[in-house]
């Protein structure tokens, strides 16, 4: 049975609380194992102390065909996110270090964006500690204005928490904006003075 919410199109299989790498039939299983192994290599190259300060994020805007080059289904996407989290967990377990991994870094359109909504649905219904995400990330680019960034971010945050009240304690962050960079006047082009305000208000909003 599919979820009644028209913005979420996932089946009961995605609601399983425990997921293991390779547990499901997945045409992208080689990519999942590669992701798992790559994270070990990163920690070995740069050192766990340095890498533990990094902020890791899942696949960029996974619902867009231009980025979802593997054509992942919701179930396959959940496998990918879980594999990434397991790789991070394994890489940091020996040193008892913590790590920051979030997502889905998406646009969260109401239609045709089942991966972004699907991972939040999974995290909302999962037991404590099963959700692979430590924070929720999204993209609200603002159309070139600070007000657009802030207003768009607040509307989406409210919508997410309304749909998934169990996620209200998770940090949220707008990870991608498009502020006004330049102002053209009669004397030439210069940096737009509202850029600093846009960046500040966006950062402040992301800590809500």
UniProtKB/TrEMBL annotation:
Higher taxonomy: Eukaryota, Metazoa, Ecdysozoa, Arthropoda, Hexapoda
Example GO molecular function: L-iduronidase activity
Annotated family: Belongs to the glycosyl hydrolase 39 family.
Protein name listed in UniProt: Glycosyl hydrolases family 39 N-terminal catalytic domain-containing protein
Occurrences of domain Glycosyl hydrolases family 39 N-terminal catalytic (ranges): 45-176
Matching SUPFAM superfamilies: (Trans)glycosidases
Keywords on record: Glycosidase, Hydrolase
Superkingdom, taxonomy of origin: Eukaryota
């Amino acid at each position: 049975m599919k979820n009644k919410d028209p913005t979420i199109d996932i089946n009961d299989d995605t609601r399983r609380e425990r997921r293991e790498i390779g547990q499901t039939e997945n045409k992208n299983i080689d990519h999942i194992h590669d992701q798992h192994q790559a994270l070990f290599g990163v920690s070995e190259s740069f050192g766990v102390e340095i890498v533990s300060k990094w902020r890791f994020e899942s696949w960029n805007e996974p619902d867009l065909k231009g980025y979802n080059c593997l054509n992942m289904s919701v179930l396959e996407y959940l496998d990918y996110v879980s594999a990434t989290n397991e790789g991070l967990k394994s890489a940091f377990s020996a040193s008892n270090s913590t790590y920051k991994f979030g997502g889905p870094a998406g646009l969260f359109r109401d239609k045709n964006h089942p991966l972004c909504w699907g991972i939040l649905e999974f995290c909302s219904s999962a037991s404590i500690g099963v959700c692979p995400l430590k924070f929720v990330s999204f993209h609200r680019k603002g159309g070139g204005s600070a007000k657009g960034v802030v207003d768009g971010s607040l509307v989406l945050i409210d919508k997410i928490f309304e749909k998934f009240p169990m996620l209200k304690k998770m940090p949220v962050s707008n990870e991608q904006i498009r502020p006004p960079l330049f102002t053209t006047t009669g004397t030439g082009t210069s940096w737009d003075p509202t850029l600093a305000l846009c960046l500040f208000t966006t950062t402040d909003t992301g800590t809500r």
